[in-house]
Design goal:
Helix content is 40%, strand content 24%. The protein has 10 helices and 14 strands.
């Protein structure tokens, strides 16, 4: 039994939750996976996985051993890579899952510049606003915008995102301008259907407060909501990375400029805490430099 190979197979089974999924991911027969894990358990003298006809779960010993395996495998990968990467340029294929609007509007130009500077890199993108199992999907990383990470996420913050309340001048002329977030309940407000938008959040005196809104439109696309607002259908709250061009060039108005909304983090999420390949680290460092602590799309924010 090759101990490191058995550890890798065990980690994949634990992460994917199925022997068959681990076998497919590692490109080996299912019987090889079950045999290797059984041999590992026999060597250790303890059960790592609790098996039933319908489920597979870690025992307490298995959970502890899993973390140790990740540390060991990460050190092995890092040690091997350190012998060659210092003299290498980034190369290989990157599979990334990322949000629709942010990905298309902001990241695509950055990816283009990164690929131009790194001709040995190719990139595959899957656009989705939902969380995806990175290991099962074979992704190198995910880019997500959120106010909180999930337990177990291995992530690095690369920037921040703020939202603003916007409307077309024609709507404001017809229906008036809200002066306080509590005035929004009198207006046609529409929001993002993947979020709870019956209340919108604002930071007032250092605390987050929620204010009710109502509206007849919702969508799972920020760009669709932007089109509705630009067309004068009502008021919406959208990230600055979506509305910046419409505010700068097309006259979309920022309402309630003295009331800030909560900040969201922009994160790179990795499949695990094991060694991160050179090509992934190169992209992440590039995005950190391009986005920075003051993202360019936030320049439209009112100066309070």
């Amino acid at each position: 039994m090759d101990r490191l190979d058995s550890m890798r197979l065990f980690v994949r089974v634990a992460e994917l939750g199925r022997f068959s999924a681990a076998a497919q991911h590692m490109n080996v027969a299912r019987s090889v996976v079950t045999r290797q894990v059984a041999a590992l358990e026999a060597h250790l003298g303890t059960k790592l996985l609790a098996r039933s006809t319908r489920s597979l779960s870690l025992t307490s010993a298995g959970a502890s051993y899993l973390e140790k395996c990740r540390e060991i495998l990460g050190l092995v990968d890092a040690a091997e890579a350190s012998l060659t990467e210092d003299s290498q340029v980034p190369r290989g294929h990157l599979r990334i899952t990322l949000p629709f609007s942010f990905g298309i509007r902001q990241l695509m130009p950055m990816f283009g510049d990164f690929m131009a500077a790194n001709p040995d890199i190719s990139i595959g993108l899957e656009f989705s606003d939902r969380r995806i199992n990175l290991i099962e999907g074979g992704f190198d990383l995910a880019i997500r915008i959120t106010d909180r990470l999930e337990p177990g996420d291995v992530a690095r913050k690369i920037g921040s995102s703020r939202s603003v309340v916007v409307a077309a001048p024609g709507y404001v002329k017809r229906h008036g301008r809200p002066r306080h977030p509590r005035d929004l309940v009198k207006h046609e407000c529409f929001g993002y259907m993947l979020a709870t938008h019956a209340n919108w959040a604002f930071v007032i005196d250092g605390r987050t407060e929620w204010f009710p809104v109502t509206g007849r439109l919702e969508a799972n696309s920020g760009d669709a909501l932007l089109a509705a607002a630009t067309g004068g259908l009502g008021i919406t709250s959208l990230p600055t990375f979506i509305v910046e061009t419409a505010v700068r060039e097309h006259g979309l108005e920022i309402l309630l400029p003295t009331f800030r909304t909560p900040e969201l983090g922009i994160y790179v999420i990795f499949p695990s805490n094991r060694y991160v390949p050179h090509r992934v680290r190169a992209l992440v460092e590039y995005l950190v430099r391009r986005i920075g602590h003051k993202p360019p799309w936030d320049e439209i924010l009112p100066k309070n």
